[in-house]
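Propose amino acids for all 131 sites.
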């Protein structure tokens, strides 16, 4: 997939298979037990390493700061999908929900995102040339 950016923040979860998310900062290896967050406007590229079923959740830019603490979601990162976040993703992907239930699902997902530590799959890109 070519590098792109969009107005919405994005959570990418590989329900199966393996993907790698690239940003200007580096890359994250994302197996099925992890998810990767990319804030709105951040250029990124997704590389599918094996057959994968991808689940993507997008947040409008105004939703993220109004629904959660303004800490930690301004950078790309990978995190473990603990049981609650996994159950929220399963429910979100199960089908259409009324607006109030959908809002509760994504608000709780955001709270889970800021509560989890970063997963150790980040490979930073060098910040200066070696010479």
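Proposal:
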């Amino acid at each position: 997939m070519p590098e792109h950016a969009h107005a919405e923040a994005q959570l990418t979860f590989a329900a199966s298979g393996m993907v790698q998310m690239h940003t200007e900062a580096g890359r994250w290896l994302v197996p099925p037990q992890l998810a990767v967050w990319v804030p709105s406007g951040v250029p990124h590229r997704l590389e599918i390493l094996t057959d994968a079923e991808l689940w993507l959740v997008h947040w409008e830019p105004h939703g993220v700061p109004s629904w959660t603490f303004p800490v930690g979601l301004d950078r790309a990162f990978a995190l473990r999908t603990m049981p609650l976040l996994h159950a929220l993703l399963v429910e979100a992907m199960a089908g259409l929900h009324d607006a109030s239930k959908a809002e509760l699902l994504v608000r709780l997902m955001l709270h889970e995102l800021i509560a989890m530590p970063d997963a150790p799959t980040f490979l930073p890109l060098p910040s200066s040339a070696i010479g």
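The two ends are 32 Å apart (CA to CA). The mean pLDDT is 87.
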